[in-house]
Specification:
The protein is of the alpha/beta class. The protein has a single domain, classed as Lipoprotein like domain (Double Stranded RNA Binding Domain), CATH 3.30.160.150. The chain contains 3 helices and 5 strands; from the N terminus they run αβαββββα. Strands 2-1-3-4-5 form a 5-stranded mixed sheet, with helices on one face. It starts with a helix and ends with a helix.
Length: 166
C-alpha cells in the first residue's frame, strides 16, 4: 500500500519539481535568432547553411538594420576520418568520423568575440564490398553531426541571451 501511494505521487512531484525549476524543452522556445554567417565556400559549410535556412529558429540575412544581429564567423569546419579498428587480417573494420566546428560569435553588445568549438565523433562498420552504402551512411552521419551542432548552437545562443551577453 505504501509503495502504491509513493508511485502514485512520484510523477506529479517530479513534474512539479521540473516546472518549478523553469525547465523547458528546447523546441518549446519561440525565440528566433537573427544571424549573419561568414564562412569559406566549402561543401560542408554550404550544407551547414542549407540546414540552418531550413531551421525555423534562425533567420539568415533577412532582417532590417534596426534588429539586433548575431554575427557568426566559421573559422574551422571539417570532417576527419580515421581507422577505428582493424580485423585479424589487418583490414579496417570500423571507421571513426570526427566532426569539428570552430566559430566565433559577436554582436553590437560584445566587445570581444566569443570563441566556441563543437566536436563530435561516431563509428560505423567498414565493409569493402558495400562502398556505395558506406558512402550513404557517411553522408547520414555528417547530416546528423550538422543537425546536432545547430541544436548546440541554439542552446548556446539561448544561454547567452539569458545572460544578456548578446
Amino acid at each position: 500500500m505504501i509503495s502504491f501511494f509513493n508511485s502514485k505521487f512520484l510523477i506529479p512531484l517530479c513534474l512539479f519539481f521540473l516546472y518549478s525549476c523553469s525547465y523547458q524543452l528546447l523546441n518549446s522556445y519561440d525565440e528566433i535568432f537573427n544571424i549573419s554567417i561568414s564562412s569559406e565556400d566549402t561543401e560542408l559549410n554550404n550544407l551547414f547553411l542549407k540546414f540552418l535556412k531550413e531551421n525555423e529558429a534562425y533567420k539568415l540575412n533577412n532582417f532590417s538594420e534596426k534588429e539586433d544581429v548575431i554575427k557568426i564567423k566559421i573559422e574551422d569546419h571539417q570532417i576527419l576520418k580515421f581507422s577505428g579498428a582493424a580485423s585479424l587480417d589487418g583490414r579496417t573494420s570500423k571507421v571513426r568520423i570526427q566532426y569539428l566546428l570552430k566559430f566565433s560569435i559577436s554582436t553590437s553588445r560584445v566587445k570581444t568575440p566569443i570563441q566556441q568549438e563543437i566536436k563530435e565523433s561516431s563509428y560505423y562498420i567498414y565493409d569493402d564490398s558495400n562502398l556505395l552504402s558506406m558512402e550513404e551512411e557517411e553522408n547520414l552521419v555528417v547530416q546528423e553531426f550538422i543537425k546536432s551542432s545547430q541544436q548546440k548552437l541554439r542552446i548556446l545562443l539561448l544561454s547567452l541571451r539569458e545572460d544578456e551577453n548578446i
